């Protein structure tokens, strides 16, 4: 696997979260249709170790199921409706597995930022499983994925499985010791909330050689402001073609 990748400026957040049910195959197709060349999505693990694309720790908000992912088996999750919560036209859209998602990305020629979003207590185990899946099944026709997480424990564990993984450190707010953390997890990129960035912060991070990716930017004017300030890429619920 290559150790660098070309990150596009526009990345579809959870696919095209603003226009389709988040983190589903139809959402990734929508992002592609809108002109995105990369999508971001969140990965966690069921009780019995199946890697699925899901943001929340429980099923309640985005599916017709109930309960936590960590206490649910794949057999209890796989037939749930993960589309109706968004709009009835998406009824019966399913929660995808990571494996299914790789196949679709390959078919669509869509790159990805894979966010490791472990259920609490599964930080290491989920990261190891995701890194192995990438190592064994990441489509050869795609550029290497960028692998990010808010969990530094997950990032360290993933990197141990495959030292070539390209790591992004995700922060809600920039900790004073961000540089030390970035070095510890061997991050190549810094991902941060656009609402807290300012020119000084951007200069500080880019001065150290890290590209900055900001989430979640749904306004094209704001996106341009961020690019002008030196931000490399934005995550958006409404991706567009550049
Ligand atoms: O990876 C960027 C963004 O997705 C992080 O926040 O909560 O949407 O996963 P969240
Ligand atoms: Mg995410």
TrEMBL record:
InterPro entries, A to Z: GP_PDE_dom, PLC-like_Pdiesterase_TIM-brl
GO biological process, one term: lipid metabolic process
Alphabetized CDD domains for the sequence: GDPD_EcUgpQ_like
Gene3D superfamilies (alphabetical): Phosphatidylinositol (PI) phosphodiesterase
Entry-linked PROSITE patterns: GP_PDE
Signal peptide: none
Gene Ontology terms for molecular function: phosphoric diester hydrolase activity
Protein name: Glycerophosphoryl diester phosphodiesterase
SUPFAM superfamilies assigned to the protein according to its UniProt record, in alphabetical order: PLC-like phosphodiesterases
Organism: Silvanigrella paludirubra
Ranges where the GP-PDE domain occurs: 8-242
Domain of life: Bacteria
């Amino acid at each position: 696997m290559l150790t660098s990748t070309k990150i596009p400026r526009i990345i579809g957040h959870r696919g095209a979260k603003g226009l389709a049910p988040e983190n589903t195959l139809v959402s990734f197709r929508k992002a592609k249709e809108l002109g995105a060349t990369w999508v971001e999505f969140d990965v966690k693990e069921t009780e019995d170790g199946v890697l699925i694309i899901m943001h929340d720790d429980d099923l309640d908000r985005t599916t017709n199921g109930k309960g936590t992912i960590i206490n649910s088996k794949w057999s209890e999750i796989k037939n749930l409706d993960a589309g109706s919560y968004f709009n009835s036209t998406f009824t019966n859209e399913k929660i995808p597995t990571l494996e299914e998602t790789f196949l679709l990305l390959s078919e669509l020629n869509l790159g990805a930022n894979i966010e490791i979003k472990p259920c609490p207590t599964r930080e290491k185990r989920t990261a190891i499983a995701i890194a192995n899946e990438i190592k064994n099944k990441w489509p050869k026709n795609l550029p290497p994925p960028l692998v990010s997480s808010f969990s530094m424990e997950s990032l360290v564990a993933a990197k141990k499985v495959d030292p070539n993984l390209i790591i992004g450190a995700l922060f809600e707010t920039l900790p004073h010791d961000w540089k030390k953390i970035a070095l510890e997890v061997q991050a190549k990129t810094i991902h941060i909330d656009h609402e807290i960035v300012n020119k000084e912060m951007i200069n500080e991070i880019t001065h150290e050689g890290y590209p900055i990716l900001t989430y979640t930017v749904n306004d094209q004017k704001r996106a341009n402001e961020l690019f002008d300030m030196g931000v490399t890429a934005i995550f958006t619920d409404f991706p567009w073609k550049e």
